[in-house]
Amino acid sequence: MDKKVLVLLIILLSVLMFLNGQNSAAEKLLLKVDRNLNPESYESYKKLINIEPNGRKKEFVLFTVKKGKDKVAALFISPASDKGRSTLRMEENMWLFIPNIGKPIRITSLQSVVGGVFNNADILRLDYAEEYKVQKTEDKEKEILLHLKAKSNSVAYDKLKMWVDKKTILPIRIECLTQTSMLIKTIYYKQTKNFGNGIVRPSVIETVSPLHKGYKSVMIFAGIKQRKFKDEVFTLSFMHNLESLR
Question: In whole angstroms, what is the distance from residue 172 CA to residue 235 CA?
Fold first, then answer.
């Protein structure tokens, strides 16, 4: 083999190994973000508040359970008009159960069971590393900017720009973008709180959207703890029985 060709091949191989190393480190960072936000399997209580431009508010309280990377279910505790409703997500498949209907109905990630700026994918969030891969990173002074690309077309947002605090390895804000990089919404992570048992994470998540000017939605976590569940909890037949887990 010609020496020049051999040298070029060695250089190319070195570059590829370097890029693969960078990608591996970036993917590990995203996995760390996921685990710092939540245990892999957990239960939590949270309040969702939709705020209209005139200041009017509508509030919901949800009990949420998650198992592994791709199973999430939530039960509406209040208001009284929604009490007993439940939602289920398995990978990208989602359902809503309404007691007086008695049969789960399919819903989509871009819809919202509570209205407001948060959609179903935000409310029933899976691990970010489950849905996105890291395209590139940018090293800022106190933050690392992750450019994320959806692994499939079924994901709610085609791209994410995630600013991660270097010290805590927690997200500070996320911009949700279309394939053409149009901004859909911005999500802000605020008020880091110690929930016990090593869980230290933002207790408040706020989102605004240029598509819903003047509107804001807020998610407040009142409690979160690690908990194991059987697979049967995340089935259509169990949706009416989520209350039994509380």
Answer: 33
pTM over 0.90: no
Residue 158 carries which side chain, given as an amino acid letter? D
Helices and strands (DSSP H and E) totals, the chain: 3, 13
Under a CB-based contact definition with an 8 Å cutoff, are residues 28 and 196 in contact?
A: no
Total of domains in the chain: 1
Range of the domain at 129: 33-245
d(CA 160, CA 164) in angstroms, rounded, equals 12
Report the alpha-carbon distance of residue 87 to residue 98 in Å, rounded.
9
CATH number at residue 99: 2.50.20.10
pLDDT at 18: 46
User: What is the C-alpha separation between 198 and 188, in angstroms, rounded?
Assistant: 22
What is the tens place of the pLDDT at every residue in 224-244? 999 999 999 999 999 999 999
Helix (H, G, I), strand (E, B), or coil: what is residue 140? coil
